[in-house]
């Protein structure tokens, strides 16, 4: 399905990003993974860059000195990397708040803009952001996290306008709770809270990776050239 | 890098853009061709394209990392993007710092 497509995935070392990386490799794509840590995948078609997504200068430098020269083109970008600290606003550590803005929002901005430069005027380009149900549900403790995720919805919507003439679409898949490393790091209290939230969803279950793959395939499809500036929530959230 | 070569590169990029326009919208290209502001025949998105193309071209083909839109460019009384001449001068300045 993705034979010879060049797919860039941020946060490729774990969780949803790792699952997406394996999914695209299974479907014959060439995958460029970006994450802070070392690669968790060894595959002929997997190329890893160890970069902190919060470091915008490193992202820009990696694109101009490495990715542009080695791959010359990009077909699909999935902005997946994110960090989450769930805490009441008044006691949220300053560093954690800043990290969320730098990774979840500015990281998406810089990766998208550098990627769009490589996508222009070639095959159709697809930028897909991984958003969150927190934007809609606005849970207590997630003020900064939800705000950054709301921010990437807006980024995608405006970039969709700016990049449309270059054949590049920008969309957001807002996932509901899914069993990942990020979710596991929650306290027991928070996990109970998430279970309560899930119970109240129109489809009261956790998301599974196939739910994610389904929407990613839709956004990434060559047939989706008329689908841009859209946010799809899983599980019936709106 | 000599200014004449930079001029050739910039003119070539503007020409490539011009060639994508319908014949009736194409414009004459010379050193004083206006790129930005009053009298420009290209829209802002096309100018962005030229800027990005030039940055990438200098990086990939000439190993010269230049940023044409940093604070210095924006702070100048006369924009480096006013016309081809000013853009060539600005790139020459960046490359030779």
Provide structural commentary.
The complex is a heterodimer of chains A (238) and B (97). With 238 residues, chain A is α/β, with parallel strands linked by helices. Chain A has a single domain, classed as NAD(P)-binding Rossmann-like Domain (Rossmann fold, 3-Layer(aba) Sandwich), CATH 3.40.50. Chain A has 8 helices and 7 strands, in the order βαββαβαβααβαααβ. Chain A has a 7-stranded parallel beta sheet, with helices on both faces. In chain A, helix 3 links the parallel strand 4 and strand 5. In chain A, helix 2 runs parallel beside helix 3 and helix 3 packs parallel to helix 5. By secondary structure, chain B is mainly alpha-helical. Chain B has a single domain, classed as Non-ribosomal Peptide Synthetase Peptidyl Carrier Protein, Chain A. Helix content of chain B is 55%, strand content 0%. In chain B, helix 1 crosses helix 4. Chain B is globular. Chain B starts with a helix and ends with a helix.
